[in-house]
Specification:
The chain is mostly helical and 310 residues long. It contains 17 helices and no strands. It is globular. The two termini are 51 Å apart. Residues 1-16 and 306-310 have low confidence and may be disordered.
């Protein structure tokens, strides 16, 4: 027969909480983590530091050249010339800005898009297949993450120069296809694709490519969007490599073209184009902001998932 403890023993082991139910949640709230004022102040400072250049650019893009030089930088001038400045930017030098914008779109679609696809294929292959030299290749790719892109710019230029491929779009697109960090991130997500699902697809007669595109790739979608956004930003802001690769201004991306206008304004015989450089910079930032806002849910999920998987 089981011996049960007496009432006195039970009361001694687990004292009865005689407080009312309304008092207990209040104590839980009081004992919870309090908001840190210092942390709030630090985050506000970071937000101001990040947003102040954008605010300055937005305000000064509404000014004429005279208003830009004769007014406070963080407030509007008497004349509102935003649309006039946009018109001048789009028509200056026979509309060269539009050409630069289209060039940048081509570089982003071909370079960032291709880098994302190759990263997904490489990460999936490294995670799900076994082949000779796998560990060595993986170590080399991870080591490439630590090498800055500027250190490879000159050797890349010499290689493309020997192939007579400089001053072409390919000289900017092909180097952008290599994304070691994108490969590593997609490897993390590919490891989480269940091997049982892949084996079931193979037993049903699915080819390897069909299994990848119809089964594995949808499971890797958050990481795919994250890698794509990182590659888009890197390609959109790419400056040094196009600078040494391209000679024709008709092939320039926005980063190199705007710097050319900026140097023109700083020259001895420079024109009054500072306000146009600021307005053009604002137009350059807008597509990146739209891309981040549109894909925010996906890339945040990808970053949080990639930080806990593996």
């Amino acid at each position: 027969m089981t011996a049960y403890p007496s009432l006195d023993t039970a009361a001694a082991v687990q004292p009865v909480d005689r407080r009312s139910r309304t008092e207990r949640p209040k104590q839980r709230r009081r004992s919870g983590q309090r908001p840190s004022i210092a942390l709030t102040v630090v985050m506000i400072c970071f937000a101001v530091y990040a947003l102040l250049p954008l605010v300055w650019m937005l305000i000064n893009s509404t000014k004429t050249y005279e208003g830009l030089l004769g007014s406070f930088g963080l407030w509007f001038a008497d004349d509102f010339a935003l649309f006039q400045n946009i018109g001048e930017v789009l028509t200056r030098d026979d509309g060269i800005y539009v050409r630069w914008f289209l060039n940048t779109i081509v570089y982003v679609i071909a370079g960032a898009g291709g880098a994302t696809v190759l990263s997904a294929l490489g990460g999936y292959g490294m995670a799900k297949y076994t082949f000779p030299g796998k560990k060595v290749i993986f170590a080399v790719i991870l080591g490439a993450i630590a090498i800055p892109g500027t250190a490879l710019a000159v050797p890349t230029f010499l290689m493309f120069s020997s192939l007579s491929m400089t001053n072409t779009m390919a000289s900017v697109i092909v180097p952008a296809l290599a994304s070691p960090f994108g490969f590593y991130l997609m490897w993390i997500f590919a490891r989480e694709v269940p091997t049982e699902v892949i084996e079931a697809a193979r037993m049903d007669g699915s080819s390897e490519l069909r299994t990848f595109f119809t089964i594995a790739l949808p499971m890797m979608a958050p990481g795919l969007v994250t890698v794509f956004l990182f590659d888009v930003v890197a390609t959109w802001n790419n400056y040094f490599l196009p600078l040494i690769m391209l000679r024709s201004d008709e092939l320039f991306p926005l980063s190199v073209g705007l710097q050319a206008w900026n140097l023109e304004a700083q020259g001895i015989q420079g024109g009054a184009v500072y306000h146009l450089v600021i307005t053009a910079s604002l137009l350059t930032v807008i597509p990146i902001v739209i891309a981040f806002l549109a894909l925010q849910r996906f890339w945040q999920n990808g970053l949080s998932a990639g930080s806990v998987k593996g």
